[in-house]
Amino acid sequence: MNNLYRTGFVVLSLLAFGCNAPKENELSQVSSRPVFNPNPTGAYLSPEESMKTMHLPEGYRLELVASEPMIKEPVAIAWDGNARMYVAEMLTYMQDADASGEQEPISRISLLEDTDNDGKMDKSTIFIDSLLLPRLLQCVNDELLVNETNSITIHSYRDTDGDGKADVKKVVYKNDKYDVNDANMEHQRSGLDWNLDNWMYVTYEPVRFRYTNGTMQVDTIISGGGGQWGVAHDNYGRIYYSRAGGEIPALGFQINPVYGTLDFADQYSAAFAEVWPIIATPDVQGGPKRLRPDVTLNHFTAACGQSIFRGDRLPPDFVGDYIVCEPVARAVRRAKVINQNGKVKLENAYQRQEFIASSDMNFRPVNTATGPDGNLYIIDMHRGIIQQGNWTKPGSFLREKIDSIGLAKNTGHGRIYRVVHDSYKPGPKPNMLKEPSASLLSHLDHPNGWWRDEAQKSIITRGDKSVIPALRKMAVGEHGFFSRKPSHLARIHALWTLEGLEAIDKTILYKTLKDEHPQVRRTAVWISEPFLEKNDEEMIQKVGGLANDADHDVRVQLLLSLYNSKSEKAKAIIKEVLENNSDNEMLVASKVALDKNEGVRTYGKKLGKLAQSDRELILKGAATFKSVCASCHGADGKGIAIGGTNMPAPPLAGSKRLAFVEKNTAARILLHGLSGPVDGKSYTSIMPAMEANSDEWIASVLSYIRYEFGGAAPRQPGHIPGMAAAATDKAAGFTTRAELSPVVTPEEVKKLREESAGRNKTWTLEELADKSKQETAMQAQ
């Protein structure tokens, strides 16, 4: 299942896109090729020693921002409006190869400050203590929003007396029905990225959040959440996910997930999926097939912590580039983001090399971010083991490497670096927390995207209506208090700030629909959706004037935004756009994605004949499948391959293991995993054991995939050739004909779990076939 299959790291197991093609010299080799280390050790290196092992292109270097003992096991960072850094530290993550004590609530969030403005943190306080592996961070003015492992709840924390420690805590989001999330740590949310559209996006959960009046509003993402560890956005609100479990370094960035799921097989090439360590990397989950002859990782297996660089203190050609970590390779990838007729593609910025590569075995980059100073930040968990305990069990290939190299010895460390360039000095620190809203307006035109985002977020969450007149002038390009016309980015942020203040009106939209910059026009279409969904004929007519816009992104957004309107005029515009762009892959595919999304929206009708408890179990499994499993098996169960690579996992649609009477076989696979060829084909990953999840979790996923992709139930006695009716029913696990249902109950899972309690290895198809024959024979007697 989407993460269920994997051959590499299960990341943390917890755990302005470019509009032009890259210049010829951008896709080049790093100036000096590093020396390859074929025999690395797991020895601990100090920050200074470790930095000497880092290789970056000419002109770039790393500076140490923070390290142990100030921080330990860092996994995510967030800055408040004054550039104080909050660091989530998972202090119990894989402290040994058996994950001992992992569920103890002793993790923390530290608050770091740079008091002398030299770029290095010199003051540290424990802002929140006694947490269970904190996963999500987002600063909102003087509040910090936090989510912990095993819970859906999000809390807000504040420090009211200025001592650097939180003293006020309140719930801002809670779902009593799903409050306890006991899924494997790796299959839980991360992110909470405040996007340009004023919604916060996370991984896994099929929802997005909007912070309003001190609480979180929730909006459903119909086709499910995406990604695994990390969420990022670009200057124009495009969301980027990554999926370590599916060995996918980037996905979900073609359209906003609320419109559906859209990825292209060629959105990056097979060459892009390859990684280029400068060190032997034998500690991979999946064994030798994951390694080249020189024992280096041969492709992404732990992609995580991605970001789009939006700062102003690296060379201009860096702005808009995609950055993603690969901690198993001890590397960080830099990619060019290329817009081709509305379809986005990625290319490595260097030929057969990485932007950052280290020969320190403990270098484990897990997150990246653009900082307030305009530079790129790298979060290094700096440890020996990066894979979670499900993948390090005794007897596994990975465990042997961990033990032989001594990787379990290296825990309790952590570093945060910033990437700087010889030609640029870091920018000044902001002081936004006390800055008047009127002063924040100027930051909406700042060259550093972090400043623009923070100013927009601060103005909205303050709810200060006094700035609305100035925002209206900025949105339409009037100088206002600027000495020049606001940039197109300032105009876009002004529009979204007005939207967040509920101050958008048709007059502003009509003007900005005619803006000279296509991304402003696209933004105006996007923001007009509340009017379009209400079938406002005047607004539909205005946006329809862009049906033949010269820019592909504008036309795609027009299709996305008009889709849900019931107006005949809107339908006519959509028809016109599609007919005039029948040869445009992006537009055609977007329409298909929208149609599928609408099908999911009405999916419940197919469940009407089932008992309510069965429907609930299947629907819960559907949400899990879409957010956890689809990245490997495909949303349609037909498998997935991006970048010209082989499928990471076999298709589920039509699988023999989902035949109606094979309930126990499917349950055993999900509980203990599956290895070896499947129906004569080999896949890039193995199916790991999911027994760490609850019986209900296992049952819900099985029920959904049997319902959606499995074989039909026997319709009459003896429907299965060669079997009596009673044997058929018993083999299927039912006692009466009335119980013929695709549903697998938690009780049935519990029974199978107890039966195989001592098993510590994956199944093979041969073993499962023998098991099935034995059960059928016994039940037929």
UniProtKB/TrEMBL annotation:
Q: Name one Pfam family in it.
A: DUF7133
Q: Which UniProt keywords apply?
A: Heme, Iron, Metal-binding
Keyword Cell membrane tagged: no
Q: Where is the composition biased (Basic and acidic residues)?
A: 747-758
Q: Where is the Cytochrome c domain?
A: 616-709
Keyword Metal-binding assigned: yes
The record's region (Disordered) falls at 745-781
Give the PROSITE patterns listed for this entry.
CYTC, PROKAR_LIPOPROTEIN
GO molecular function terms listed in the Swiss-Prot or TrEMBL record: electron transfer activity; heme binding; metal ion binding
Q: Which NCBIfam families match?
A: Piru_Ver_Nterm
Q: Tell me the protein's name.
A: Cytochrome C
Q: Which organism is it from?
A: Pontibacter diazotrophicus
Its taxonomic path starts at: Bacteria, Pseudomonadati, Bacteroidota, Cytophagia, Cytophagales
